[in-house]
Amino acid sequence: MPENTSLPWLLAGPILRKIEPSRISFWLASSAGGPLRLTLQPEDAQQQVLEINSDDSGHSRLLQAGEKLFFHLISLDLSSPLPVDRRVDYVLERQQDGKGWIDITSEAPYLLYPNQNRMTFRVPGEIKSILHGSCRKPHHNSGDGLVAADNLMADLMKPGPREDPLPPHRPSLLLMTGDQIYADDVAGPMLIAIHDVIARLGLFTERFDLAEHEDYRTSDKIHHHDYSYYRRSEMLPKLQGEDDLAKVFFGGIRKPVFTSDTSDNHLITLAEHLVMYLMVWSPVPWEFADTSPPDGLSPKQSARYRRERQIIRSFKEGLPQVQRLLAHLPTAMIFDDHDVSDDWNLNREWEEEVYGHPFSKRMVGNALAAYLTCQGWGNAPTEFPTTLMEHLDQTLKQPGSSEHDEFTDELLRFEGWEYIWETSPPLTVIDTRTRRWRSESSRVKPAGLLDWEAITDLQQMLKGKEAVILVSSAPIFGVKLIENIQAFFTWLGKPLMVDAENWMAHPGTAHAILNIFMHKRTPRNFTILSGDVHYSFVYDVELRRHNRGSDIWQICSSGLRNEFPKTLLDRLDILNRWLYSPSSPLNWFTKRRRMRVVPRRPEGLEDGRRLLNGAGIGLVEFDDQGRPERIRQLLTNGEFRGFERMEHHHQYR
């Protein structure tokens, strides 16, 4: 590592999280601690100045993960409520060794939009529009949906009238519906950069006392092992029996039917997971990260490294805009499988094998600890138990201790990842990964995405509301042909081969969630926002009964930086149209036959097509009753694609 001890103070952020009239919450990472000062200047209202000290009580925390890595989890009560849906300018300053206050934008001027001298936000009240997306894989060879969103924000910040295709309003919030990181699918240059940043920031060494090999007993040894790049599956221990843990833990990633992704650089240590978030949200760590290829790569690995390096260079170029976007829009997040590992909690077999060994169990715990630090806390800053946050603090300071193992068990038991933002309509985000309805008949059958207790809790949250925005990482109403392919492989006992996770895969979950939509006290207007699948689509769903119930819009936007294999998706789209046409008898064999599903055609595609394949971000505009008024996908080239309702292609499902 070059001898350069000078590091920027701001490493990542600020990221606006849950913003309410009486409370503001945000996240940032820095190379040093110290006091902060926040100045809020609402439009036509009184200025507020708040000083933030590391020893403050309440819901703010300063977490130290290394000699030069601090996470600021700031949540502040305000003396005067902020106006809703009005512009608020804000200035965030740090104190420099008694030399006074320094505006962080003076050191990172790219955080400001053109002709702007302060960062800004709006407290979301009545939701006018939402940006939403999922699946942001740094080494996928495409543009970045978050960069496209920042370009849109820059256009909306310009003075003067707005003309179509620009929306009339600044988005109320940004919603990231899963796979904000790919812990299981990491490019070689990315992992090399992560290890260099870990060393420069002095992240604390993690012990793996129960690792079977001495070579894997500390994080430092893992980071420098011969297997550390492109051979990580070989680090996992053997299980008793015919399978090794690599096959169970990583086997689902090798799915020849849909994707060729591999897990050869799967994140393992807590430090790797934490630094990954810095690398995907900020350009700053890349400024001092060394990505020189390691010694010992095979010719095949060297060629792969060179390909990945070219794509990563393109990814890095957009990070100043990503950091700027996240500093100006309140951002909600929820995990999906790749935030931890592909097919996370798919079935009982996966859970029994992975959680049954301390090494792989620690890997999952590390991913969840990093998620809590960088994503989960900001969704509900006042709701996480004090003891949980104290145990997180201890774990970051002493990774690998007995307290770390106890904290992993605590995280695996935790059932508070779902949350509600009381906007209009309310944003209700469900956890489809950790509260699963496990199959009792077979350990290999996919678990339901929510168990009975979780579905009951959801029904209680929804009762009495006129409209709701419901966030499910996986679409509730998916592409029927693809779901049936998944069911076929499950019948063969191979659910890992095709990522067989959908709401209809488990009979109990399927009937329970559909009954929620049929219940007379659930909302009149349901907007379901989803991701996960690497293509985008929109379905209008109506109940088939005399006393018409809820109107449902299933809107899927995926991925921010990922796409489905084009030829395969084209064929599946066409086959799905023919096999599940309005007159097809196959519709009567589905669990949704009491519902009328009307697909929408993406603009620019021929009649009958339903699936849009292209990296980008979804933009949904709502009317004053909380119903989607205009649904579009903003592609990374700046082009908007709307979705046209195809009445003559409806399905009874």
TrEMBL record:
Transmembrane segments: none annotated. It comes from the Bacteria. PANTHER family: METALLOPHOSPHATASE BINDING DOMAIN PROTEIN, PHOD-LIKE PHOSPHATASE METALLOPHOSPHATASE DOMAIN-CONTAINING PROTEIN. This is PhoD-like phosphatase. It comes from Aestuariispira insulae. The lineage of its organism: Bacteria, Pseudomonadati, Pseudomonadota, Alphaproteobacteria, Rhodospirillales.
